[in-house]
Amino acid sequence: MPRHWRASLSFLISVFTLPLCTSAANSFENTAIVRTVELGGALVHVTTTYAVKALEDGSSVYTLALGEQEHAHTSWLEAKLKGQSALLPLEDFGYHPDSGVYLYTVELPKALDTNGTANLVVETVQTHATYPWPQEASQKDPQSLKYSTELFVLSPYKTAVQRTKIRSPNPQVHDFTEPETIDFTTDSVVTKSGATITYGPFYEIPPCATQDFVDTKQKQISVHYAYENPVLEVTKLERTAEISHWGANLNIENNIHLHNAGPSLKGHFSRLELQTQAYFGRPAPHMFSGVNLLLPPGVHSAYYYDLVGNVSTSHLRPIPSVPKGANSNAHSVLELRTRYPVMGGWNYSFTLGWDSPLEDYAGYDKSTGKYIVGIPLITSVPTSVVDEAEIKIILPEGATDIDYFAPFPALSESISTHITYLDTIGRPKITLKYRDLTDKHTGTIYVTYKVPFRAHLQKPLAVATAFIGLFVVALAWKRVDVRIRRK
C-alpha cells in the first residue's frame, strides 16, 4: 500500500506542477541573474539576485527552480525584495520528475503589470557542500577545501544575462574549473580577480528548468581554496529545557557531539609541535581548541563537563537580565576551551548547561489562564552545522492544555511523560527532532500551558507524605520488639 500511495502522490504532484512549470515562462522574463557564493567551511552562503520583468498584467507569483545537487545541500531558503528586510511567502512544490528540478513559488507583495520590474533576492545556506582536499594533513600542513556546484542557475523563464561569482575567504585559490565549449557566451568563460572567481556573462539563456537542458548544457564547476579555520560539525545535539515554577528557574542543558570535518591527521600528534605553533601564534588551521558562545542575558550557574569530568578551561562573562520587550543585542559570553586540541577527523563530546530566571522567558495570560514560555531553539556553535538535533522541553508536573509553536517545522514531534525525583505522575515532555540546522535557525519555541492550583500543591504534599510515612515506619519499628527471648 505505501508504494501505491507514493505513486499516486507523485502523479498528483506532476499534475499540479506541470502546468506551473509550463505556464511560468509566459509570466516573467529574467533580465539578469547574479549568483554570489560565499565559500566557507561547514556552511556556504549563496545569494542569488533575479532582476525580473513581467510579461503580462497581474503577474504576482514567481517560480524558483533548484537542481537536485543544489537542493540536496540546501538547508535554508528565503526570498525578499532587494533593499527590504521583510520575507516573502514561499511555497515548496517539491520534486518535479519530468523536469528533474525542485520547484518553489514566491508571492510578490504587489502584482506587476506588463513590463513591470522587481529585484528578487533569494538567500540559501548550503551544508556539507565542501570537503577537505587533500583528505589528510599533518600537524604542520595547511588546510584546503573543495567546493563543487553547477554552472548555470536553473530557471523556468528566459534569461537575458547571467553571472556566477564565487568568493573565497582569502585570495589563495589553488585551482578552479575552466569549462570549454560553453554556449551562450562570446567572452571569456571565467575570470579571477583577487579572491573572486566570476563565471560569465552568459547571454540569452532559454528556459532551462528542464531535464534536457540539465543533460546537454549544464556543467559542473569546482573551486579548490585555502581555509584557515576548523570545519566544525555537530553530529548530534540533545538539548533539554526544564521549566520549574517552584524554583522560578529555566535550566537548559546541551549534550553536544562535535566532529572536526577537516582533513584527517596524518601521522602522530606532537605536543611539541603544538607548543611551537602556540609560541609563534600560528596554530594549525585544522585544529579546534575553543570557541566563544553567545548566551542569553541573565544566565548563571553555567557548567561544562565531558566524559572525564568537569572541564575548568572555560570562563563565563554574564550580563544582567534585560527587561522583556526591550530591543537589546547584548549577550552573555562563554569562553569555552576543549580539554584537548581537536584535530581533523577527531570527535569531542561534552555537556554544557546553565540556569536562567524563569521570569525572563515566561509570561501569564489572565484571559486564558495560560503560561507562555519562549525557549531558544538552539545555541549555535559559530560556522557549524547541526546534523541531528533533538529538542526536549519538560513542563511542570500537572501541566494541562499544552500547545506549542515552533519557528520551523520539525521532522517529528511528540508529547510524552518524563519522571524524575519527587514526581508522582510525571511531567509532560515535548520532543522535537530536526536535521541540518545552521546559524539561520535561531528561532524561539513558544509553549503555552495551564497549571491548576492543586498541581502547585502536588510536590509539597508528596514530600510531606514521604516524610510522614518515614516517621510512621520509624515509630512502628521502635514499638515492635524484634529481640529473641527465651520463654
**Major β-sheet profile:** 7 strands, mixed
Query: Beta-sheet strand percentage?
Result: over 45%
Strand order of the largest sheet: 4-7-2-1-11-14-13
Mean pLDDT: 88
Structural class computed from helices and strand pairing: mainly beta
Query: Could you estimate the helical fraction of the residues in percent?
Result: 10-25%
Distance between the termini: 80 Å
Stretches where pLDDT falls below 50 for ≥5 residues? 1-18
| Count of individual helical segments | 5
Number of strands: 30
Radius of gyration: 29 Å
The backbone outline, from C-alpha atoms, is globular
Task: Write structural notes for this entry.
By secondary structure, this protein is mainly beta. 15% of the residues lie in helices and 48% in strands. The protein contains five helices and 30 strands. The strands form seven sheets. Strands 4-7-2-1-11-14-13 form a seven-stranded mixed sheet. The radius of gyration is 29 Å and the shape is globular. The N and C termini lie far apart (80 Å). The relative contact order is 0.12. Mean pLDDT is 88; it is low at 1-18.
Sum this structure up briefly.
The protein has 487 residues and is mostly beta strands. 15% of the residues lie in helices and 48% in strands.
